[in-house]
């Protein structure tokens, strides 16, 4: 085969495309960098301003209200452990990064999901792109992200969003399309407009599914923190990365454990938001 | 019947599902069968040239087995499904040619719908569900609440406003579905197998309630069902569908008595006749003797006819009672009048009584049960054999008696003429 057809210069094209993007959209990328940095740092400053024990109690209360007593207890003990081990600041940095990524995920993902659920062509275009985003190894787009956004927390956020947005979009589409056909028919029969149908019927009924999507996005963006630390994002990921490169097994385990505790707390709280809402009404 | 103006007129409505409706339509017009068309074009004919009129205030039942196209047909009436060709006129306006906006208005103001599986919004309370149609029209909160509460009251769901659909039984959920449709106060109500998902007892209650509501509201109702008993119970008119075609349209009685083809006949075969046939369908011509005749005349008549008792009427055919042959014989020997021996306590029913309801009376009566009108005028008698024959679906019995009824009616009018 070799020689019969010349090798497709795909790598070359991509290189040139990335160069072109970097130069042409420099202003746009700079604006994104500044605003994302602003959000992450603002969040971190706000969280760090609160004394750790007060924040622990607040998170405990939040868990109690949104989830169960058991989860609240776990959150309080787990967070005390993180504080005690000396990873409080790292945890807050990671939390700011994850929350920012999830915020962007929701802002992009839900409207995209709604759009795709209404138009089949959009869905058909979006689906392979989502597959691409989920399976393409993160490092591959991490490097161009450095070109666009320079080293720091922003390429980390962008990489997290790319990796975490597909489940929110997919489950928003699924949730809306799962609304039973006879209910849609009924809303049509009474003369609803498309917007009325969407806001009064489809979105409320899709909410539990959409919440499950957001929950998945949170977990995925958490799983990106170590990779994000390689391009300079601070936080628990950086602690793990440092420990691993210096073969400090104990410290690596501590930082890893802190990530696990965070993940469980975030997961249980967000999982229960959907269920509690559903349980009350449906 | 009140005003007879045509509320809804369906003309040649055809619906072809599939990729090549034009070819299918052409084949259909050439007289090819549904299966042929499916084979040749891959298209399914859902509804084939349906034409009918529904008058204001009428309950029009579309009946057929599943797959007969009845649900498709009803959905073309508010264009949940667009007909491939044909016209659907509501108050003279063709909705198939309407733009989105106009169509939405028709759906909001003129035509509402009740669904087989209720199709309630699970995240809304009963009140919010009932308000839905008004809410999307932008009716203000107070007014739509008032109207919704009123509709809920009509269907007997007062006090359930703040419940959620899942908390109610199937029958109650369908009442909510009905209330939601009523709240919009549209003239036309489409009911797509509205009671089919309910168990038989609840279904019967709902039918009764619908009829009761209808007597007060006089909506134009198009009711879809696969259940002939239901169709006969509530329909003013019934259209029978098969393979997308309407095979017969008529009153329940016409459908039963004169099935237009074998398909209808087979359908009608299984129906519980006792719930459809009335006393006037199976009654026989009554043999009577007038009160001013003597006992000997009565005795002579009974002997001639070979019967052991006879009804006594006055000149206006008003039923006075019955006498037996034995009593007449004694009276003749003792020189008494008929007045003295008449037994006024005879079993009477009206002509509209259903066979189910009079079976008990007929089986325990010692003399044939009398059929009278509201003025106690004697119309005919019920002989046990004919009632049982009617229950068994013996058409001969029914037809013979139909003739008898006509005779009675003719008799009646000629009597009226001599007055």
Automatic annotation (TrEMBL), chain A:
GO terms for cellular component: ATP-binding cassette (ABC) transporter complex. It is found in: Cell membrane. Coiled coil: none annotated. It comes from the Bacteria. GO terms for molecular function: amine transmembrane transporter activity; carnitine transmembrane transporter activity. Keywords: Amino-acid transport, Cell membrane, Membrane, Transmembrane, Transmembrane helix, Transport. InterPro entries: MetI-like, MetI-like_sf. CDD domains: TM_PBP2. The chain crosses the membrane at residues 20-36, 43-64, 70-88, 95-118, 138-165, 205-228, 248-266. The keyword Cell wall biogenesis/degradation does not apply. One of its GO terms (biological process) is amino acid transport. SUPFAM superfamilies: MetI-like (SSF161098). PROSITE patterns: ABC_TM1. It holds the Pfam family BPD_transp_1. PANTHER family: GLYCINE BETAINE/PROLINE BETAINE TRANSPORT SYSTEM PERMEASE PROTEIN PROW, GLYCINE BETAINE_PROLINE BETAINE TRANSPORT SYSTEM PERMEASE PROTEIN PROW. Belongs to the binding-protein-dependent transport system permease family. CysTW subfamily. This is Glycine/betaine ABC transporter.
